[in-house]
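Task card 7
Instruction: Convert sequence to structure tokens.
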Amino acid sequence: MNSSPLANPISTAVYPKDFADKLAAKPLFYQRAYLSSLLPNHVKSGHLEKYYQRLTDFNFLIAKIQHPEFGVQALIDDFNFLDNSEAVTHSDYNSEKAKALHLIQATLWMSADILDEDPTKLAEQLLGRLLYFEMPSIQAMLEVAKKWKAAPWLCPLTPCLTPPRRGLLRTLKGHRNSVNGVAVTTDGKRTISGSSDNTLKVWDLTTGKELFTLKGHSGWVNVVAVTEDGKRAISGSSDHTLKVWNLTSGKEEFTLKGHIGWVNAVAITADGKRGFSGSFDNTIKVWDLATGEEEFTLNGHSHLVNSVAVTADGKRAISGSRDYTLKVWDLATRKEDFTLNGHSGWVNAVAVTEDGKWAISGSFDTTIKVWDLATGKEEFTLTGHSDSVNTVGVTPDGKRVISGSRDNTIKVWDLATGKEEFTLTGHSNWINAVAVTEDGKRAISGSRDKTLKVWDLAIGKEEFTLTGHSNSVNAVAVTEDGKRTISGSWDNTIKVWDLTTRKEEFTLTGHTYSVNAVALTADGKRGISGSFDNTIKVWDLTTRKEEFTLTGHTYSVNAVAVTEDGKRAISGSWDNTIKVWDLTTRKEEFTLTGHSDSVNAVAVTEDGKRAISGSTDKTLKVWDLLSGNVIASFTGESSIASCAIAPDGLTIVVGEESGQVYFLRLQGMEALT
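Output:
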């Protein structure tokens, strides 16, 4: 077989060997035809069954996303032929089959950022998201996916990822710090984000790719707006300036100077001729975007201005401030029309409906208020968020409001009824910004978790209580015989409890900070604790004394596990590392690195050969404790809080910070032999 990458671009290291061999043995033109041109031909010629079979064939899907000439987006586009073909009407095609194709496509959309980085995660993503659906064609495809063994991977045994439905479409990653502002072009094809990493990024919403980065600010980019024609963006920064950017060339046009405090808010008139900025200096400035000159300043707020919006006709501006008020300004007379009072906290965000009749404000008081701009009266209040509302947006038809909050959620509200429609969850930190596409079908959110997310807007009794700790209990472990439990607390102590008498036996003291993790040796004679004081302590539970302390982590120890033979301990830390310790020599053996954020959970197989770690970076990793290498990795929906391994050493139960619990199975171990 020709091993040239051009003649044989299909890698047998990735696909099932028999399938890869068959396809790779074909000429390049045949591979291209099989992976692309045959699909539209199937639809145009009415061979819908062949089209359907191809796109529900796991082998075809993984071949296409791995092929160097295609990839994830090309595969996503394949599913559009059915919707876009004039030869197909709704009645021409079995609705269940059409639904199956839409579910698979939606799964690919949601997983695109992960699959772009690592196509071998296709089976993981399909199973995690589609096990919810009992459709025969979906289940048949998943059965094939489960048998994929070209590399070790973690196979979901239960549905554990967000299913394809109304909600998250894609996550955009690239900023190195909090995303504070987002704007979207009128055609819905591009979004622009501003970050505390001092940059703006321009993204293609079709492919999910970063187009380019705009650099020039010397401080955080707090806010961004885009002109209606999509040709220019205006950003406001903590460096006290605004910058005007050309979105065709990716170059800065000019800088607007005049504010003496951070610029927190920007808005642009529909004709793109005027810009508005709100600042820490309590003022709103109006700018001529042709000349780059300041026209005039609006004074009246008694505290910093957090937000500003302008009506579609360009005649009025609305500002929100930390003085708890909104002000409505007449831009012809350059005077304040009236002040809107009602919030009991800072006004963080303001938006105005397309017809200019209503203003919507979001506040630190956790509410959203809807205001009548003719009368200056409050219409109603939207309640539901559990923390500050940082951002609001309104759909172009004026029927819905989208709000983002410090409670890490986005809520969608019906403005006619004043009711919440649904909540969008997925961000792991505050929502700082939201924008809505012109067609009202998508929202884009920016978060303190450093990501942007694209959303589809269409779619047991208690026995007894053990009391004694004086602060939060962070960790518990139970002896193998079930007679004792050990607890670690924020009060810096470990307590040992008798589960028969339901009484405290004794308290172990020695840590100088919160105890985050505890583990017990199989014989129940030793306890191991990990603490915020960066140390691990080994305790003799017979003598009730500390044996020794293990030092080496540079930050809080969040998790500990001990091998079945009691000879090794494994610790996970806020310093992003896992350390393996020899409990006989009392020395560190080696450090495992690979997580990009805090390690919150660790577990070890019964044979002591593999460790599993879960992290705030949303990944679960399986480690070979002989080589120190990662065997497999799984990406979840939120921070991994806990993990445990079944006696078979292959089945893993995972708990996420979101409350989600699911099962994974380590597959493809044959690939290592």
